[in-house]
Amino acid sequence: MRLVIVGGVAAGMSAAARARRLDPSLEIVVLERGAHVAWAACGLPFYLSGRVARLDDLILFTPERFQRERGVLVRTGAEVTAIRPARRQVVLRGGEQISYDRLILATGARPRRDIAGAELPHVFTLHTLEDGRRLRSFLDEQRPRRAGVIGAGYIGLEIADALSERGLEVTVWEARPWVLDRQDPELTQLLERRLAERRIELRLGTAVSGIEPGSVQGVPAEVVVIAAGLQPNVELAAEAGIELGRFGAIRVNDRMETNLAGVYAAGDCAETTHVVTGGPVYLPLGTTANKMGRVAGANAAGRRERFGGVAGTLIVALRELAIAVTGLSVAQARQAGFQPVSVRIEAPDRSRYLGSRPTWVELVADRNTSRLLGGSVVGEKGVAGRINVVATALAAGMTLEQFAQLDLAYTPPLAPVRDPLLVAANELNKVLAS
Amino acid sequence: MRLVIVGGVAAGMSAAARARRLDPSLEIVVLERGAHVAWAACGLPFYLSGRVARLDDLILFTPERFQRERGVLVRTGAEVTAIRPARRQVVLRGGEQISYDRLILATGARPRRDIAGAELPHVFTLHTLEDGRRLRSFLDEQRPRRAGVIGAGYIGLEIADALSERGLEVTVWEARPWVLDRQDPELTQLLERRLAERRIELRLGTAVSGIEPGSVQGVPAEVVVIAAGLQPNVELAAEAGIELGRFGAIRVNDRMETNLAGVYAAGDCAETTHVVTGGPVYLPLGTTANKMGRVAGANAAGRRERFGGVAGTLIVALRELAIAVTGLSVAQARQAGFQPVSVRIEAPDRSRYLGSRPTWVELVADRNTSRLLGGSVVGEKGVAGRINVVATALAAGMTLEQFAQLDLAYTPPLAPVRDPLLVAANELNKVLAS
Fold first, then answer.
1. Are B67 and B29 in contact (CB under 8 A)?
2. What number of other Cβ atoms are within 10 A of residue B250's Cβ?
3. What are the start-end ranges of the E strands in B247-331?
4. Minimal Cα–Cα distance from A191 to chain B, Å?
5. How far apart are CA A107 and CA A11, in angstroms?
6. What is the percentage of chain A residues whose pLDDT exceeds 70?
7. Best interface-test mutation with B: which of A60, A383, A408, A411 has the largest number of B CBs within 10 A?
8. Helices and strands, counts by H and E, chain B
9. Does residue A335 sit at the B interface (CB-CB below 8 Å)?
10. pLDDT for position B390
11. Which of B22, B27, B40, B42 is catalytic?
């Protein structure tokens, strides 16, 4: 039995590791077209800012080490150019054919760059290690003072903040009138104010028509980074007759099975299910890729495991400020057919007498069922933990009444006696009761 | 209609505030025997260490302010000496009688001090503002160099660390062979090592028979603090015929009703329900007192609300180190009739390339049902957030499989791509599958 995995970053390597653990006799081959496997893409903005000193620090392990320790054949520079499902073969650039019994597609995604001027020498994306090397060299050597970032999703915001940390003045363009792909005007305003203090200007609701040498839309920018979303790498799959889903990524069931027998997909190339709506969603994130990869690897190795889907949890760390969302915003909840009610509160993140700082918590619930639908947290401390509590409640399908009674940790230096989450829940309960 | 509330700290003031909000016409009287209401008992160790400069910083609001802003009559120095349920009256020291339509008992708890020598002038407890004032004055004036702390529950540990932060050498005695009232040898060892680095020595499994001037059990100690647990203040209730529960605190149902019509109890004087065992539990904590007080206040004001109980979440912050537990330990789970399996893992608290520090996560699940039963988290960052995720999962009755798929936040500076919680869950799933 041979398992072939196409793609060796997050989902692919998780799948390989899991399959190996469950079936020591399986022959496993990872085909990665790049030079590296298992590297931390999410660390790139921190290499840009200088907080990660060396690009090599982002490489979690080498192909050689993975091969030695796990007994998985890892081939880099191995680009699959075709899948032949009828023959159960993949074809590599150069013509080599490799047959498989099971196939996992973990082909990832690539940054959208369909903007005029994207090919100019001062325009970058930040998606691969090579991207990181090129952009940081450019910054170190050219010493630009003004930057443009196209896209105010989490990657765009992290890049903008990293550039600002390096001393650049930054303008961020976003076609939609809000940040983080979340139609939430208050969250957007909250962030806008904080970023302005760092000389990061948000230009929202402004599609960039083109990039000129030295400027974007008339605003000077000696360096430009495009972070306008990801596009799943599905060409190989589509040509092989593998079905795509509503968002253009590979459609899989909860076992990560595609429509072709023995062919799985996982990670940024595939859609998954949203735990709140129950419907499909495309949210390419490292954690999700790892989880999907694990499930694909387990099933490809003969287990029967399911992936329950995602809540859409996302956190952005902009130096000491963190912004996190999970589940549905009010607008998304309405689109999904719920009758959302929401509150947003500001509350101290720990006991006031120990120097608390404000935290903002938004909760969204369904008026009919009182079910919690989503939330956001902004603050300096405890943001990841608080959004995770909301994400856990979403996965459990909790009502707001249940949520309001959670037994959350209290100690004055870390959390106040009434946790901001519970303050928000009690406020939203009042709205529901009215 | 008059609502009388006996006790004006956490539960009492929460009850008063909630009842007032729900029924603006209700006459509400709070009777507090001390000089202050609504003060933050949990802040006392931080006053000891000096991180809270003034004792007044721990007073959240004055009786006058509460009276002015909420229209609640708050009487301090008003000690209730008897309840006469047949006449619906309480009697104050001095003989004054106050009649009630509804009565909420929020009489709190007091530190156990049944140790020979407890009355010596160098022996303290830390339960009231006056306790805090006396102990800090003693430390400031007498400048002791060696301290003894009796009890290694969360209060004892916080006091020990505060004294150590002031430069004292500290010995902590605990009658049981473990810390935090949790029969968990590994957690105890983990803590023991860390405390030893701060010149805090734990003497476990050692009941203190008596305190001598200048020493405890032959170990020099110029100052001694007794933190050997809390005893609920139930004498008033018991004399009035109010039933006590298994742990000697007032027995209430999920509406905070005692066995006497119209009489409620909430906070440290009452028992509550454990969300994992479904059985009664006595866990006197500030957050629980607030929640119970809110429910008592709502029901006394004519609403019908329920309190779902507690998971037993507890966190102790010892400078940068935090220790948190929730739900059942292995030993507690076994006693409760489960077949517990558990793992404890050490994992980085954020991405390694951003200077991660170790976090220890223990998860306990039931072998038969795979239901999550409890957990503990030790580390420097993110401990409160992580234990809260476990507490949320416990309240929801999640299985380990569900838990392992939680969509937790990931960003390199705050949380690693595989959160320690999920690393632990995956490890425990392997144990369950074996």
1. no
2. 29
3. 263-265, 272-273, 280-281, 314-318, 321-327
4. 18
5. 9
6. 100
7. A411
8. 12, 25
9. no
10. 98
11. B42
3-state secondary structure of A399: strand
Which residues from A are below 8 Å from B274, CB to CB? none
A275, A407, A434, best to mutate vs chain B, most B CBs in 10 Å: A407
Which of B10, B311, B382 shows the shortest C-beta gap to A407? Answer: B311
Handedness of CA A162, A164, A167, A169 (dihedral sign): positive
Rg for chain B, CA atoms, rounded: 23
CB atoms B408 and A317 under 8 Å: no
Spell out where A112-229 has E strands: 123-124, 146-150, 169-174, 200-204, 211-212, 215-216, 219-220, 223-226
Query: Which residues of chain A have a CB within 8 Å of the CB of B354?
Result: 43, 46, 51-52
pLDDT of residue A189: 93
Average pLDDT over residues A393-413: 97
B42 is catalytic: yes
> Strands B97-99, A2-6: parallel, antiparallel or unpaired by DSSP?
unpaired
Q: Which of residues 290-319 of B touch A (CB under 8 A)?
A: 290-291, 294, 307-317
Query: What number of residues does chain B have?
Result: 434
Q: How far is CA B13 from the centre of its chain?
A: 17
Of A326, A431, A302, whose CA–CA distance to A386 is shortest?
A326
Q: Which residue of A has its CA nearest to B158?
A: A411
Is the full-model pTM beyond 0.90?
yes
C-alpha span between A154 and A342 (Å, rounded) = 23
Domains defined along chain A, listed by start? 2-41+57-109+231-300 (3.50.50.60), 113-226 (3.50.50.60), 325-433 (3.30.390.30)
Helix (H) or strand (E) holding B200: strand B200-204
Residue-by-residue pLDDT tens, chain B, 434 positions? 999 999 999 999 999 999 999 999 999 999 999 999 988 989 999 999 999 999 999 998 899 999 999 999 999 999 999 999 999 999 999 999 999 999 999 999 999 999 999 999 999 999 999 999 999 999 999 999 999 999 999 999 999 999 999 999 999 999 999 999 898 999 999 999 999 999 999 999 999 999 999 999 999 999 999 999 999 999 999 999 999 999 999 999 999 999 999 999 999 999 999 999 999 999 999 999 999 999 999 999 999 999 999 999 999 999 999 999 999 999 999 999 999 999 999 999 999 999 999 999 999 999 999 999 999 999 999 999 999 999 999 999 999 999 999 999 999 999 999 999 999 999 999 999 88
How far apart are the C-alpha atoms of A5 and A103, rounded to whole Å? 6
Task: Look at residue A423 in the predicted model and tell me its pLDDT.
Answer: 97
- CA nearest B155 in A: which residue? A411
The Cα–Cα gap between B403 and B395 comes to: 12
Are B43 and A412 within 8 A, CB to CB? yes
- Give ipTM to 2 decimals: 0.96
Q: Per 3-state DSSP, what percentage of chain B is helix, strand, and coil (rounded to 5)? A: 30, 30, 40
Confirm or reject contact between A415 and chain B (CB < 8 A): yes
Considering only CB atoms, which chain A residues are within 8 Å of B412? 40, 42-43, 46, 317
Phi, psi (degrees; rounded to nearest 5) at A11: -65, -45
Say whether residue B35 is in contact with chain A using an 8 A CB cutoff. Answer: no
Give the mean model confidence (pLDDT) for residues A173-194: 93
Q: Which residues of A touch B380 (CB under 8 A)?
A: none
- From A154, which residue of chain B is nearest by alpha-carbon distance? B411
Contact B354 A285 (CB under 8 A): no
Cβ atoms of B30 and B5 within 8 Å: the answer is yes
User: Chain A interface, mutation test: which of B21, B407, B417, most A Cβ atoms within 10 Å?
Assistant: B407
Residue B396 to residue A393, Cβ atoms within 8 A: yes
